[in-house]
Amino acid sequence: MSVVIAYCSCPDARSAGVLARALVEERLAACVSELPSVRSTYRWQGSVEQGEEVLLMIKTTSDRLDALGARLAALHPYELPELIAVEAIGGLAPYLAWVAQQTRDDD
Prior knowledge:
Layout: E1 3-10, H1 13-25, E2 31-44, E3 47-61, H2 65-75, E4 84-87, H3 93-102
Antiparallel strand pairs: 1-3, 1-4, 2-3
InterPro entries: Ion_tolerance_CutA, N-reg_PII-like_a/b, N-reg_PII/ATP_PRibTrfase_C
Family: Belongs to the CutA family.
GO biological process, one term: response to metal ion
């Protein structure tokens, strides 16, 4: 099991807050940081779109990623929510241990 940082964009602060709270309450994430006012440019259904979004940085573990993705898909307002995860290759050992502890399903 490793610590991962998952990224997810949201259309607004309200939906970002709802998702962040649910993921932490359900122990799918130890911490979710909300980065307001990111500008995204993307291709969607044949058109190039641009818009302001809130980016979530979700700190979790690799073994919780599938459950996190399923919950995100159920709660997210987008038809196709973004979820991209990268492995943390290092970090402060006590923090990494805290992330693992907070995402344990058996507490």
